[in-house]
Amino acid sequence: MDEWVMLIQEIGFPILVSFYLLHRIETKLEAIHTALVSINQE
Q: E strand or H helix at 25, and its extent?
């Protein structure tokens, strides 16, 4: 059981940071996509 706790502690934080960064990038990509679509429609 202690091995599982150590594994989660070692791997859990990088996974959390990765998901946070992916979420931030996703919102910025959506904004860029919206801007490009609006430029293309003009």
A: helix 2-41
Q: Give the C-alpha distances (Å, rounded to integers) separating 10 from 1, 5, 28, 36.
A: 15, 9, 29, 40
Taking alpha carbons only, the member of 11, 30, 34 closest to residue 22 is: 30
Q: How far apart are CA 1 and CA 19, in angstroms?
A: 26
The whole model's pTM is what? 0.59
Report d(CA 11, CA 26) in Å as an integer. 23
Confidence grade of residue 13 (pLDDT, cut at 50, 70, 90): confident
Domain ranges of the chain: 1-41
